[in-house]
Amino acid sequence: MADLGHRTRQRMADEGPQGNLGGPAGEGPQMPDKDSKATMDAEDTSGGKASSEPQNLRPRVFHSIKFFVLCHSLLQLAQLMISGYLKSSISTVEKRFGLSSQTSGLLAAFNEVGNTALIVFVSYFGSRVHRPRMIGCGAVLVTLAGLLMTLPHFISEPYRYDHSSPEDMSQDFEASLCLPTTSAPPPTPSNGSCSSYTEARHLTVVGIMFAAQTLLGVGGVPIQPFGISYIDDFAHHSNSPLYLGILFAVTMMGPGMAYGLGSLMLRLYVDIDRMPEGGISLTSKDPRWVGAWWLGFLISAGMVALAASPYFFFPREMPKEKHELSFRRKVLAGATSPVSKSENSPSEQNPWGSLKKQDGLAQIAPNLTVIQFIKVFPRVLLRTLRHPIFLLVVLSQVCMSCMVAGMATFLPKFLERQFSITASYANLLIGCLTIPSAIVGIVVGGGLVKRLHLSPMRCGTLCLLGSLFCLLFNLPLFFIGCSTHQIAGIIHQPSTQPGLELFPGCAEPCSCPSEDFNPVCDLSTRVEYITPCHAGCTSRVVQEGLDQSQVFYTNCSCVRAGSPVLAGSCDSACSHLVLPFILLVSLGAALASITHTPSFMLILRGVKKEDKTLAVGIQFMLLRVLAWMPSPVIHGSAIDTTCVHWALSCGRRAVCRYYDNDLLRNRFIGLQFFFKTGSLVCFALVLAILRQQNKEAGTKASNRSPGLEQQLLVSGPKKQPEDSSV
Questions:
Q1: Distance CA 154, CA 537 (A)
Q2: DSSP state, residue 512
Q3: CA dihedral sign of residues 622, 624, 629, 634
Q4: How far is the C-alpha of 664 from the C-alpha of 481, rounded, in Å?
Q5: Would you call 68 exposed, middle or buried from its count of C-beta atoms within 10 A (0-12, 13-18, 19+)?
Q6: Buried (b) or exposed (e) across 489-528, using 16+ Cβ within 10 A?
Q7: 338: how many CB neighbours lie within 10 A of its CB?
Q8: Distance (Å, rounded) from C-alpha 475 to C-alpha 316?
Q9: CA neighbor of 66 nearest in space, from 323, 367, 418
Q10: How far apart are CA 679 and CA 656, in angstroms?
Q11: In whole numbers, what is the pLDDT of the chain averaged over residues?
């Protein structure tokens, strides 16, 4: 603004007093801005002052709210990519560092811890700081958090998928074979390699990831609230909803791109930067395969860094946008109802505008001191929470958010375990089907509210129907899947193989390492063994094929007729059901997302006008504290209870090797069913309260109408001359 005023004063000094005659007299301080803009345009077109064009180029670009919308859309897209990328690689991180699902769920939830802890302070200092620079600083913290997430890969030793192999021996070659000549059992890895240094290194790696997730949440605090308030402050009041809609549409592609990036990165081996000399014999279908999870964080962090660089050049305040977009004027000219020109029109015309503008307690009390803010917050909080519609709608959204948080974090792992597909394919299905379906549902819900001009009663009905159909489409998911195949020594299913009897003591002379994991499958009986040693195999054969080589283990004493076994886990008999399953999940996600906009409209229309901003902020805080933080931990704990075989590391439980698929499906889908039922009940209560309020309003109106009509009949003829004279 100072630079613009300096140019205006310089131009007025050059042109003399006639420069003040260019605009209407009533515009006041806006007149120099228009004059300077017109003069700059004239200078550019006439070429009279071509030497000043490079100096004016940067201010003109960085004083454009359209350019800010473009930059902020790209930044929020990159931020959601780096925030959602961990969810796409959660099972891979578990295998690489030996984490349980409860620990990985807590790791995913720590993103919300840093965000929730600072969001109130950011709201308080909202309009008192240089918002573009604060956004840039937050993006720098997000970039550092992404780089910090990759640090465990570089400080850890190369991944060895067969931990019992000596360093100088090719993995999977002889270490997993049955060697009957061994006189004594070899020392277990837990006794031989579990030093205090190993434990300290594991704790360091886990601590670094938790710190990175916390820093990621802290860095994301100023990005959305400051950016949206900045756009709304300096955009034309009729263009602000359009800009916020564009911002929202671009931002929503972030989670889908995160799963797509995860699908690409997990196809690469984790140690692609330090591959062993002889290469590896694993394929992505092997349960021991670990993809390059860290590479996606590097790419996302680089994107955030590039998107953050323009924010340090935007001014603290820019000239208010003066003109409405031409194509928007054409659209509104043909509409039946014109857009209100009042200051409240952005939030009234676009529910997403008011929602996103006030996300995270933004602009709660810009004129209050800290002490006044602390005093007023609890009073308004209690008053807002006593509102029944607000409380029930927030509880329903908490239930929906719990469902979404658990599904987003562990759905890739569930698909991997339930249908024996690769992590890459699971992420591809979610990124291409589930996320776009949710976006479509949100758009459809917002379109219905806008097109049909839904009242609060009809908004409640739409939310109830969306929750009901989402719940109905959840029921078939309980039956889509199959039981875990038979695993020797762990899961025995005599009903499926009535004539099969495992040899209970056949592997005792082999001295098999207890913590080794190199699964093999007997194709004839579909029985899986943890290692070739547990199957009693003494030799290994490699068959070269056209596409890839296959590894067989032969002379297996624990296998019927001594037939060879194939390296790798047995394929699931339910792999073909993954597409019907993900289609039902996607359809349910679309139906649940339809309730998003009408539920927010119930809040915006239900609370007092002066409490509206704070109510939305409280709503987002409750969603974070009650849903996004605990839900991944709850789902992870439920998944851990279905584990039937844990890998041990230094005497502690590490990653789960095998799950009871039936129990896993019932508990994971059961949690989704529970949260969806809670949301349905809350919306039903909201609808009942709205009906009761409408009945009471109708009763009061009917009681008042006879007396009012009689009063009008009596007083009407007397006042008629007075009215007509007026």
A1: 36
A2: -
A3: positive
A4: 10
A5: buried
A6: eebeeeeeeeeeebeeebbeebbbbeebbbbbbbeebbbb
A7: 8
A8: 53
A9: 323
A10: 32
A11: 77
Q: If residue 354 lies in a helix (H) or strand (E), which one and from where to where?
A: helix 351-357
- Residue 285: which region, alpha, beta or left (left: phi > 0; alpha: psi -120 to 50)? alpha
Highest CATH level, class, for 64-163+196-314+345-379: mainly alpha
Amino acid at the residue 266? L
Q: Among 71, 88, 85, 75, which Cα is nearest to 298's?
A: 85
State residue 406's pLDDT score: 93
Of 305, 74, 118, 78, nearest to 222 by C-alpha is: 118
Other C-beta atoms lying within 10 Å of the C-beta of residue 167:
6
pLDDT in tens, 322-337: 777 665 565 555 544 4
Partner residues linked to 291 by β-bridges: 269
**Model confidence at 532: pLDDT above 70:** yes
Report the run of H or E that residue 157 belongs to, with start and end: none
Three-state DSSP at 333 gives helix
CB-based contacts of 535, cutoff 8 Å, min separation 6: 178, 488, 507, 520, 522, 529, 553, 556, 557, 558, 559, 565
> 3-class DSSP state for residue 96?
helix
What 3-state DSSP class applies to 697?
A: helix
**pLDDT tens by residue, 369-411:** 667 666 776 777 777 777 888 889 999 999 999 999 999 999 9
pLDDT-derived band at 359, boundaries 50, 70, 90: very low
Radius of gyration of the chain (CA): 32
Q: What is the DSSP string of 224-280?
A: HHHHHHHHHHHS-TTTHHHHHHHHHHHHTHHHHHHHHHHHHHTTSBTTTTS--TT--
Backbone phi and psi for residue 398, each to the nearest 5 degrees, phi listed first? -65, -45
pLDDT in tens, 271-312: 888 887 767 777 888 888 899 999 999 999 999 999 999 999
Sign of the four-CA dihedral 108, 113, 116, 122: negative
Cα(710)–Cα(579) distance, integer angstroms: 68
Identify whether the C-beta of residue 593 lies closer than 8 Å to the C-beta of residue 408: no
Amino acid at position 399, single letter: C
User: Dihedral through CA 67, CA 219, CA 406, CA 156, nearest 10?
Assistant: 120
> Order of strands, edge to edge, in the sheet holding 565-567?
486-487, 527-529, 520-522, 565-567, 550-554, 539-543
CA distance readout (Å), 492 to 483, 526, 529: 11, 12, 12
Euclidean distance between CA atoms 212 and 111, whole angstroms: 9
The set of residues, in sequence order, having a beta carbon less than 8 Å from that of 123 and lying 6+ positions away, is: 225, 360, 361, 362, 363, 364, 617
Name the residue with higher pLDDT: 593 or 546. 593
Distance CA 96, CA 73 (A): 34
Backbone angles phi, psi at 656, to 5 degrees: -85, 130
Q: Are the C-beta atoms of 537 and 554 separated by less than 8 Å?
A: yes
Q: Which of 158-172, 212-226, 288-302, 353-367 has the highest mean pLDDT?
A: 288-302
What DSSP letter does each residue of 533-556 carry, written as one string? TTTT--EEEEE--SS--EEEEE--
Greatest mean pLDDT among 226-230, 290-294, 361-365, 446-450 = 290-294
Q: Where are the domains of the chain?
A: 2-58, 64-163+196-314+345-379
